[in-house]
Amino acid sequence: MALWAAQILSQTAANAVTSALIILVAELTHSNTSSSLLILLAVLPAVLFGVAGGVLVDRVDRRLVLVITNTLRAATIIPLLLFGTSTTVVYLVNFLVATVTIFFVPAEAATIPAIVRKRELMVANSLFTFTFNGAFLVGFIILAPVIVSLYGYELLWVVIAFMFSIASLLCSTLPPAPSREGLSPHAAAEVAGRAVAETRAGLGEAFRYLRSAPLVTWSLLYIALTYTLVAMAGALAPGFVREVLRVGERNVVILVGPAGIGVIAGLAFLNLVGQRWRRPNAVGTGLVLAFAALLGLAAARPFADLFARVGSPGLGDAFPVFAAIISVIAFVFGISYAFVTVPAMTLLQEELRDDIRGRVFGFLNMLVSVFSLAPLVLVGPVADVWGVAPVFVAAALVVGGVWIAGKSTRERATGAAKITSE
């Protein structure tokens, strides 16, 4: 319970930091490129320090890692309270929080087997995975936008620092995990080298397995695609409400709030019909909904230009209707995220061999990070030059292409499942 509560608090707070900093940097710079750079700095540590984080966690007391990482993240919030209007501070804090989180996540995952009975390990890992995704939803889409919109940044920084601090106290109650004694610097370097070699060998085996399992491969791509779309939408959301709705960046809740509600609605629907709805069909439906939602967001920009009244602020009398339409489109986008991600993740759990599962999920984490880099580098500058509409059109075309390319694999999987059930 202590570890789970610490996960809820710390990961929700970490996602809330990223979300709030996106809104803040958009207000300071009025630039989509700046927002993309900010999210890029949140993704980059996973690429740079992912392996090192795992090596360190295996060499020291994991409880100490959990306590220190949460304490450090609470401390990094202080500069935001003191110098919150500095873009440099915003970038630095964002990078530091993401870097420290790289060490927290593997330490947390590795602690679970030490404190949970073996027969309950599957349930514990399922809860861990569910909370990991739920923390993104609550922190990034709900907590940060709502508090910033209603009360401002200062209160949010205090809340986030408090959440990290409580998480650190909860982790201090965990049983210690003794570190390996007598490890010299030379031996530590050898261990790190072996860890890197084993990681490469494991990824090579994962690649060979994925070539022989197209359904698993496509499921990985679906999940990576949806995570990339969410990162892209998060980077563009402040600029979208500024360009399309003609309101301040803090009103980003108009877009992300309905999207969060859509995710919840999608999850609820899957829980009701999940056993009767073939998972490949659910993924296909989610891709179609994402395609339609992205085109709807793209069309909003020229329609906003059409409805905007010359000489009057914003959209004038058309604003309530326009905001409602945008909210509905964002709601559909949230549903599409649930319809794609959850069934695809379930397919992975069902199809993967137990002896390859860890390596494939490790590959998934790397895949998500790598997939996110290129779009985050490109979407900001493109949106600043040509507006947000071309970016959403391009994203819709990618989703449509993935839907077409993976259709035959989904149909074969659906047919095989139907034969098995009969």
- Average pLDDT for all residues: 77
Under CATH, the topology of the largest domain can be stated as Growth Hormone, Chain: A
> Architecture of the largest domain, according to CATH?
Up-down Bundle
| General shape | globular
Strand content: under 5%
Which stretches are poorly predicted, pLDDT < 50 over at least 5 residues?
none
Please report the number of helical segments.
15
CATH class of the largest domain: Mainly Alpha
Structural class label = mainly alpha
- Rg, Å, rounded: 22 Å
Number of strands: 0
Q: What is the total domain count?
A: 2
SSE order, one letter for each helix or strand: HHHHHHHHHHHHHHH
What characterizes the major β-sheet? none
Distance between the termini: 42 Å
| Helix residue percentage | over 70%
Let me know the CATH homologous superfamily of the largest domain: MFS general substrate transporter like domains
Explain the overall architecture.
With 422 residues, this protein is mainly α. The chain has two domains: 1-181, Growth Hormone, Chain: A; 213-422, Growth Hormone, Chain: A (Up-down Bundle). The protein is built from 15 helices and no strands. Helix 2 (32-59) crosses helix 9 (214-243) and helix 13 runs antiparallel to helix 14. The chain is globular. The mean pLDDT is 77.
